[in-house]
Amino acid sequence: MLAPLLFVWPISIALTHYFASSVASFPYDQSLRERALAIARQIRFSDGRPELPMSRMAQAFLRSDETDSVYFHLLADDGRLLAGDEELPVPVALRSLPKGDPGDVLFRDDDYRGQALRVAYTYLYPEGDPGGTGALIEVGETTEKRSQLANRIIASVILPQFVIIPLAVVLVWLGLSQGLRPLTRLRERIEARPAEDLSPIALRRVPEELQPLTEAFNSMLERLQHSVAAQRRFIADAAHQMRTPLTGLKTQAQLAMRETDPVELRHALRQILSGVDRASHLVDQLLALARAEASGRAQQALVPVDLDQILREVVEGWFSRALEKSIDLGYEEAGGVCIRGNAFLLREMISNLLDNALRYTPAGGRVTARAIAQGDFALLEIEDNGPGISEDESQKVFERFYRVDGSDAEGSGLGLAIVREIAEVHKAAASLRPCARSGDGGRQSGCVARVVFPAHRVEPVRPQIREPVQTGFA
Fold it and tell me: By mean pLDDT, which of 108-112, 356-360, 361-365, 401-405 is the weakest?
């Protein structure tokens, strides 16, 4: 605040000088006007010619001034000096001077021997003959008194400012220090926190003016806390889950080094390869889970996509896996199901649902994928005729690393957790429920994984695709 104050101060001094000069000139202009009128009252016209019958004593009285020099003269229309001082300069453009009405006193500024001169002048004409030979009366004086009065006025205004401005600076400093003290205390509270403390700042001692800032800061702390918690959870999950397969690989490698029988050695290498595949799958699942959580925190942009088209593309990529396990993998075309989503995350979700279904479906079983548009919602379903699942376990399978009791299928227990995270990003709901479908011998088996999305009204441009592909094994 001091910088603009120092900038305005010179402007204030300049304005003070201008107005002080105007104020100081006014009384002296009035005095000069009275002198010009006093001389005008002494002028007489004889035969149309102006005359000034004025004694030397009267002229001396007219010029009397303790500070300034006073001059006067009487000029004819053509500029001839009729009476008065020759020293007083005659206007260069005499005829161009504003005349005003008869008897009006006007003012002009001039210069005489390097001194500023203030001149009062008026025109006189013979009575009854305003167009006749007139006379110009001019009374001038130097401006020393005016300058002295203006300087006194300026001094009376400026000098107190040398006291007022420093006092104002001190008061502003104290006011700002007092006003910013709550902000200083808030800063000290934040600086005194340990680095790991991400709890929100209590609002009870925060001034009203700082509450919006504190609430925004608390919101940021909450998001940061979720991010740090997710990072720690990922590190803990990765450390916990990777320790077991890595230990198994190390043990199998040590056993393989001791084998001399080629058959046993090949068997040990197959075990190592299988363990590497499991570890690789676990790493992929952990990374997919981390990406899904990061997408949810970052508020990924969702755009109109065709869920049915994405489903078909992903199913086509899993046909080879289904062939290896002799599973009938089917896809039911819906003709276009539009939602707002992230295509990359949706492919990850569908892949995990298909992987889960293929793992738990025995050889010769069936897995069917479909997308359905139902009014304000869009459904994604992956149905299988595997061993099924109980109602109790259908709620737990979306937890991390949860495995169904009694299952011999290999897996990391992360697939459905990833599905849930991606569903939350899309404001969708994921569920797994038993499927009442008759199997061989009339047994009830199988389950349906369903994700319910909000539908998008505007249909996207659907690219040209090939005819649906259906594989099946008797």
Answer: 401-405
CA distances from 99 to 27, 154, 255 (A): 22, 34, 126
Assign domain 2-151 to its CATH architecture.
2-Layer Sandwich (3.30)
- The pTM assigned to this predicted structure is 0.46
**What CATH number should be reported for the domain whose range is 195-297?**
1.10.287
Q: What is the residue extent of each domain of the chain?
A: 2-151, 195-297, 300-454
C-alpha angle 406/407/413, rounded to 5°?
120
Which pLDDT tens digit goes with each residue over 126-143? 775 555 567 888 888 888
CB 135 within 8 A of CB 43: yes
Helix (H) or strand (E) run with residue 1 in it: none
- Chain-wide mean pLDDT for the chain? 77
Phi, psi of 248 (to 5 degrees): -65, -40
pLDDT at 309 over 70: yes
Options 3.30.565.10, 3.90.1200.10, 2.10.109.10, 3.40.190.10; CATH of 300-454: 3.30.565.10
Q: Is the pLDDT of residue 228 over 70?
A: yes
Burial grade of 217 (CB within 10 A; 0-12, 13-18, 19 or more) = middle
Considering only the C-alpha atoms of the chain, give the largest distance between any 2 of them, rounded to a whole number of Å. 156
Residue 398 has pLDDT above 50, yes or no: yes
Q: How confident is the model at residue 468 (pLDDT cuts 50, 70, 90)?
A: very low
- The Cα 153–Cα 279 span in angstroms is 93
Q: For 253-304, what is each residue's pLDDT tens digit? A: 877 787 777 887 787 787 777 777 767 766 776 676 666 666 555 555 788 9
Instruction: In whole angstroms, give the CA distance from residue 430 to residue 379.
Output: 10
Predicted pLDDT of residue 404: 60
For 35, residues 6+ apart whose C-beta sits below 8 A from its C-beta are 62, 70, 72, 120, 139
Burial of 78 (0-12, 13-18, 19+ CB in 10 A): exposed
- Helices vs. strands in the chain: H and E counts, helices first: 11, 14
What the block records as the tokens of 19 is 């107005």
Distance from C-alpha of 462 to C-alpha of 36, rounded to nearest angstrom = 100
Residue in the structure block whose two tokens are 């199913």: 315
Domains 195-297 and 300-454 share a fold: no
